Amino acid sequence: MSVPVLLIAFNRPDLAEKTLKRMIEANPSKIYFAVDGARIEKPGEQDKVKQVRNLTSLIPTSIPYEVRFSDRNHGCREGVSSAITWFFSQEESGIILEDDCFPDLSFFPFCEELLRKYKDDDQIGMISGDNFFRNKIHLKDSYFYSTYFHIWGWASWRRAWDGYRSTGIPHDELYSVLSKKFFFKRQVLKWYNWINGSSSGKVDTWDHQWTFHNWKENRISIMPNVNLISNIGFRSDGTHTVDENSQFANLSSESIAFPLIHPKKRKLKFLYHIFVEVNYYPNKIYQFVFNLIVTFLKVKYYLMILTKCNKGE
Hints:
By secondary structure, this protein is α/β, with parallel strands linked by helices. The protein has two domains: 239 residues, Spore Coat Polysaccharide Biosynthesis Protein SpsA, Chain A (Alpha-Beta Complex), CATH 3.90.550; 30 residues. The chain has ten helices and ten strands. The strands form two sheets. An eight-stranded mixed sheet has the order 3-2-1-4-8-6-9-7, with helices on both faces. A two-stranded antiparallel sheet has the order 5-10. Helix 1 links the parallel strand 1 and strand 2. The protein is globular and about 55 Å long. The model has no long low-confidence stretch (mean pLDDT 87).
């Protein structure tokens, strides 16, 4: 594979080892390995971080690698975002995985092909390996376009990351972008609170700001027609993913078929948009609309099957 990969890890050596081994299987052009520093107030964490950093011994001599080991703990927001900035300061494009995002092997050539295809297309902000729809919709195309930016295994370009801000997003700019993005004021306020909370440091995360950065630039993302990533990190030592019973925990992944079938038209999948708002960012209005649409599609499908059966008699 001619694409570099970035692995971002912290204090879970078992997960980092599993994901790193999968990366090595893909034989990337180069591995970048970023590990945040231990928190002084957490007994035993220094040893776990050391175990994670020692995983470089698994990387074969045939694959070049670079490391970024922090002397202090930067937290999720600055730790992850600064690692991505470091990665794109050296590479024009690449694949990014956090230690708990375990990919199907086909995820790598999927990203490689689309990184090349959309290299100069500024409307595309990233390529995701996630599909939370779980067989609720069947597509002839290998992927579709979305207004959401799921980062449990993704790929992007320096051109898209440039200008990203983890902090200091002006309130008026935030509200203006969201007001144009969403029809319902409730959605505007929900996303405003999330992104402002992350930007101000009330919530220690970086991905809401990444979503906003792409919305501000009127970008969309690419989603595969099957789920290519399993998040194996839903457990008590997780940062945000601690509920082992979450519907998104350990989602099964599968291989995507090659050669890829590219969409002929660039249209957003409205049903997926509704599904994400219902399940990933809960909203009662969207829940009602989604249930209505799903019921309609089921009735339409069964009527189609019944019609075919009657014609065959």
